[in-house]
Design a protein that fits this description.
Blueprint lengths: L2 E2 L5 E19 L5 E20 L4 E5 L13 H13 L5 E6 L10 H16 L6 H11 L3 H6 L2 E6 L3 E4 L6 E7 L6 H12 L11 H9 L2 H7 L1 E2 L2 H7 L3 H10 L4 E4 L6 E5 L2 H13 L5 E7 L5 E2 L4 E2 L1
Parallel strand pairs: 2-9, 4-5
Antiparallel strand pairs: 1-14, 2-3, 2-13, 3-5, 3-6, 6-7, 8-11, 8-12, 10-11
Helix pairs in contact: 1-2, 5-8, 6-7
The protein binds adenosine-5'-triphosphate.
């Protein structure tokens, strides 16, 4: 990594990944999306998005998780920057540099995080003066997970996940993430979920009282027991090897584990930073997981980084 002074023509925003503590998938809506009830927690695994005044719109990508990130018009950060430019009447292009630490297609909403970061960075660069509510509205149009990447912390999501409500929560939590070498496509995981549930009546999704109670009392043990993801059977069906990772994590002392979002990243809640480190060692030494990360949570959402910029 090299650094350069953050010039007036350049803004960097740091944005976190998310884990769904509880993900309930309801029936398919007329618009093709599933009705969701979820509880998001922002975790301390971050991407950084730097926007710089430029002659052309373009994206470059670096960092440990850069493989597989598109640099064409489909990049969600570029899409977000252009959407905001149109909204506020800016005609000058920016170049975007993404430093990726969030696994790609891993169920941790990395692309959505970059979109949220690009909104905040461009709003700052252009002195557009958008309120957080206005940015959240735009974010919801860009993707279901984008509003939460703006807000961070812990929140309940309904609708497609884009309608956020506060959650009463205390305490901090220590996570271990076992990354997978191959990603899972979110639409394919939902399609597999529908296939596995075919012929069954799917009730309207409601939040889990156990998760809410655990968060209210700041009890990691209770939260570990309450973790739930309706997409997990579908992710396991598409990547059966994840079952072994889940079993091993709990055997090695995790308070609970689940597939993160649409997977294939597996998230384990642990009792302390030391327990998280021990679990990382056990998972890698046993060969069950190749690449693991630790992260503290909750953390705040997309925020401008003061001072030097990563280039
Ligand atoms: P989610 O949990 O929100 O469904 P995910 O974490 O599983 O998403 P992402 O990392 O957001 O997956 O990537 C999904 C796909 O989006 C990638 O395979 C990639 O082709 C595309 N994509 C577009 N822009 C980005 C970006 N900035 N970073 C990562 N992927 C991006």
């Amino acid at each position: 990594m090299t650094t350069a002074d953050q010039s007036p023509g350049s803004v960097t925003v740091r944005v976190p990944a998310k884990v769904n503590l509880d993900l309930r998938v309801g029936p398919v809506r007329p618009d093709g999306y599933h009705e969701l009830s979820t509880v998001f927690m922002a975790v301390g695994l971050h991407d950084e998005v730097t926007v710089t005044t430029s002659d052309t719109w373009r994206v470059t990508v670096g960092g440990p998780c850069s493989a597989g990130v598109p640099t064409d018009d489909t990049n969600l950060a570029l899409l977000a920057a252009r959407t905001l430019a149109e909204e506020v009447g800016v005609h000058d292009p920016v170049s975007l540099h993404l430093h990726k630490d969030i696994p790609v297609a891993g169920g941790m909403a990395g692309g959505s995080a970059d979109a949220a970061a690009a909104l905040v960075a461009c709003d700052h660069l252009w002195s557009a003066g958008m309120s957080r509510d206005e940015l959240a509205d735009l974010a919801g149009q860009l993707g279901s997970d984008v509003p939460f990447a703006l807000s961070g912390g812990i929140a309940m999501g309904s609708g497609r996940g884009e309608q956020l409500a506060p959650v009463l929560a205390r305490g901090s939590y220590h996570w271990v993430f076992a990354l997978s070498e191959t990603g899972l496509s979110t639409p394919e995981v939902y399609a597999e979920c529908d296939r596995l549930r075919a012929g069954r009546r799917v009730p309207a999704p409601t939040p889990s009282p156990e998760v809410m109670t655990a968060l209210r009392s700041g009890d990691p043990q209770a939260l570990g027991r309450a973790l739930h993801n309706d997409l997990q059977p579908a992710a396991l069906s598409l990547q059966p090897g994840l079952a072994e990772v889940l079993e091993a994590g709990v055997e090695y002392g995790a308070l609970g584990g689940l597939v993160s979002g649409s997977g294939p990243t597996v998230a384990f809640l642990t009792a302390s930073p030391e327990a998280a480190l021990d679990l990382c060692v056990s998972l890698t030494a046993s060969g069950v997981a190749g690449d693991v990360r630790r992260a503290k949570a909750p953390v705040h959402g997309a925020q401008v980084v003061p001072g030097p910029t990563r280039v």
